[in-house]
């Protein structure tokens, strides 16, 4: 049974996010919206079969990309985020271009385990 | 003529979240150059709580009229209450803005959980950003709005400053150096204007409204018609150079003399009978000013006829006009709101009830916001020594009472508070129906404390029990 719905940015999909960035994680039962689920939208979709959307591991995929901006005047206030997402999940299979509801996700081959998703995850901070 | 492209945010709409809407914003117009296309994009969001943190940065080309707006859809307004309407609530910054000319309208932006180390709104770049009619609340130590610190470019410009109008800011942090708004340059300038903003009703102990710290770059700060309900108004080395007028606040860390309103200082209170002094009397729930003869700041602001930067409506849509206005985000309405409608089907029920029957049904009656009766166990029973009362929601500003009483007349009174009552009239008679007792009051005039305002129905000198079936309409 699918749980969390991970939505990423297609390469050259025209979104304001970087290629393969994790845009948002939603409850798998939430329809992300008519403009998002259009087949020609710039979004890609994968359901995580063994994590809920509010699991800290899954939520961490939406961590901001903080770059190297430590405020010189007030270092105790931490970094200021400029980029949008630190993590990418590369969904190369064309099946991920099409959103289906959670009950149909497995048949549509857009369901993966957390371990499988981790293997597709990139960390900009590690580059 | 600018072509406006409207998209929707909410459950079952174009986008389920602000994050998804912002992500797709470059795909909505003919191209990402909204100026060349003469297009504007408006996102209308449904009332709901959106738990997300959104960074607004894109490659869109925009200007003051061809840009992107995020607003509450009609019927999804917050009514001046934090957490109501379109409420974006997140444990980190709710909104980070780097795009030019982005407009945020009628939203509730808050961090309701504690121990948060990011501001609710961060402005890191971009000119012409507008926040209008928003309610902001911070339960953390970084306040409601920060600009400049760690920015990637100028925040606002001389020709297109960031404009914050009709917004209320609340902070519950009690750390002694907390600020609702922190402006600090770090290599880029800040141009920002605040018009008719309220700091409150929630203000942590020792908390300032605003700090202006020109560390490395100029801060051009304008403050117009500010109402500060805290015991400190402004700090930082840039405070003295703020421009503007008609700002009301405390004696400690006051607004600069040149931009103060009169009288100054004022003391903020929710006491409707505060005694001698210069008072700003406000509603504890929203910070809205109360229409009270002891309220010394009413009409103390400069009006839109004298300063075009003053918005012509307030945070809840009340009209501002003329050379003077009320300071802060809320205007005391001088207009009579429309009466609650006696719609056709309601009239039919009323006419049926003209002969009075305990079994009269309200089935099918629409637009009734509160009802007692006609079910057998759902009525007031009052007698010569007992009156019945029902509290009225504070957001109401007009009341229309329709009653059915068993046999004797009753008096209907609207209690605005413990010492102010309005007699609406007598209802009923012998086996009869009386109706159409209507009363209007201004938004913010009525202070809700859980007991007031209330409708009170009392006997008219009869003996024996009286059954009262009551419908009322609120607008």
Describe what you observe in this structure.
- The complex is a heterodimer of chains A (127) and B (475).
- Chain A is an alpha+beta fold and 127 residues long.
- Chain A has one domain.
- Chain A contains three helices and six strands.
- In chain A, the strands form two sheets. Chain A has a four-stranded mixed β-sheet with strand order 2-1-3-5.
- The radius of gyration of chain A is 15 Å and the shape is globular.
- Chain A starts with a strand and ends with a strand.
- The model of chain A is unreliable at 68-79 (pLDDT under 50).
- Chain B has 475 residues and is mainly beta.
- Chain B has two domains: 3-325, Pectate Lyase C-like (3 Solenoid), CATH 2.160.20; 344-474, Jelly Rolls.
- Chain B contains three helices and 36 strands.
- Chain B has helices at 18-23, 34-37, 344-352; strands at residues 3-9, 39-45, 48-50, 54-56, 68-72, 86-89, 95-97, 102-105, 108-111, 121-123, 130-132, 135-138, 145-147, 162-165, 168-171, 179-184, 190-195, 198-203, 208-213, 219-224, 227-228, 234-235, 243-245, 267-269, 279-281, 301-302, 324-325, 370-372, 380-382, 388-391, 398-405, 410-415, 421-427, 433-440, 454-459, 466-474.
- In chain B, the strands form seven sheets. A nine-stranded parallel β-sheet of chain B has the order 1-2-5-8-11-14-17-20-23. A seven-stranded parallel β-sheet of chain B has the order 3-6-9-12-15-18-21, with no helix packed on it.
- Chain B is globular, with a radius of gyration of 25 Å.
- The chains are: A alpha+beta (127), B mainly beta (475).
- The A-B interface holds A 7, 9, 13-17, 23-24, 26, 30-36, 41-43, 64, 69, 71-74, 77-82, 84 and B 7, 9, 11-17, 19-20, 22-27, 52-53, 55, 57-59, 92-93, 96, 98, 117, 122, 124, 142, 149-152, 184, 186, 215-216.
């Amino acid at each position: 049974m699918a749980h969390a719905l991970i939505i990423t940015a297609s390469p050259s999909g025209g979104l304001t996010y970087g290629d393969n960035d994790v845009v948002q994680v939603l409850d798998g039962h939430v329809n992300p919206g008519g403009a998002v689920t259009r087949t020609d939208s710039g979004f890609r979709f994968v359901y995580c079969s063994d994590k809920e959307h509010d699991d800290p591991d899954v939520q961490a995929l939406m961590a901001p990309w903080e770059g190297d901006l430590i405020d010189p005047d007030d270092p105790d206030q931490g970094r200021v985020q400029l980029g949008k997402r630190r993590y990418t999940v590369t969904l190369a299979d064309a099946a991920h271009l099409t959103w289906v509801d959670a009950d149909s996700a497995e048949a549509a081959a857009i369901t993966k385990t957390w371990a499988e998703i981790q293997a597709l995850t990139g960390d900009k901070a590690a580059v | 003529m600018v072509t406006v492209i409207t998209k929707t945010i909410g459950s079952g709409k174009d986008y389920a979240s602000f994050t998804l809407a912002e992500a797709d914003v470059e795909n909505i117009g003919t191209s990402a150059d909204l100026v060349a296309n003469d297009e504007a994009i408006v996102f209308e969001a449904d009332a709901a709580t959106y738990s997300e943190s959104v960074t607004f940065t894109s490659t869109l080309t925009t200007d003051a009229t061809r840009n992107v707006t995020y607003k509450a859809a009609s019927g999804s307004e917050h009514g001046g209450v934090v957490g109501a309407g379109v409420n974006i609530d997140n444990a980190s910054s709710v909104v980070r803005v780097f795009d030019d000319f982005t407009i945020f309208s009628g939203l509730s932006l808050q961090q309701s959980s504690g121990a948060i180390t990011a501001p609710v709104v961060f402005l890191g770049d971009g000119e012409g950003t507008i926040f209008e009619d928003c309610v902001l609340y911070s339960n953390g130590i970084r306040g409601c709005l920060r600009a400049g610190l760690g920015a990637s470019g100028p925040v606002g410009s001389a020709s297109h400053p960031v404009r914050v109008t009709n917004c209320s800011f609340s902070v519950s942090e009690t750390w002694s150096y907390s600020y609702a708004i922190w402006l600090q340059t770090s290599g880029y300038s800040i141009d920002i204007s605040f018009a008719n903003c309220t700091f409150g009703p929630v203000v942590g102990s020792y908390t300032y409204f605003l700090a202006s710290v020109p560390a490395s770059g100029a801060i051009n700060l304008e403050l117009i018609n500010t109402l500060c309900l805290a015991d400190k108004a402004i700090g930082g080395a840039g405070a003295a150079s703020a421009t503007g007028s008609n700002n009301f606040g405390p004696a400690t860390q006051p607004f600069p003399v040149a931009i103060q309103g009169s009288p100054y200082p004022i003391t903020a209170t929710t006491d409707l009978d505060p005694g001698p002094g210069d008072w700003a009397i406000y509603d504890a729930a929203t910070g809205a000013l109360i229409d009270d003869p002891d309220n010394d700041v009413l009409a103390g602001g400069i009006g839109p006829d004298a300063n075009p930067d003053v918005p012509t409506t307030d945070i809840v849509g009340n009209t501002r006009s003329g050379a003077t206005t009320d300071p802060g985000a809320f205007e005391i309405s001088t207009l009579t709101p429309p009466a609650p409608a006696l719609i056709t089907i309601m009239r039919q029920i009323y006419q049926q009830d003209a002969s009075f029957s305990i079994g009269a049904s309200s089935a099918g009656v629409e637009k009734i916001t509160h009802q007692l009766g006609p079910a057998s166990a759902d009525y007031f029973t009052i007698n010569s020594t007992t009156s019945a009362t029902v509290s009225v929601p504070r957001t109401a500003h007009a009341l229309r009472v329709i009653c059915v009483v068993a046999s004797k007349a009753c008096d209907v009174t609207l209690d605005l508070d413990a010492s102010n009552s309005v007699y609406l009239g007598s209802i009923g008679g012998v086996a009869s129906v009386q109706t159409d007792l209507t009363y209007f009051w201004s938004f913010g005039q009525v202070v809700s404390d859980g007991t007031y305002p209330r409708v009170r129905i009392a006997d008219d000198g009869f003996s024996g029990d009286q059954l009262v079936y009551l419908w009322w309409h609120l607008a």
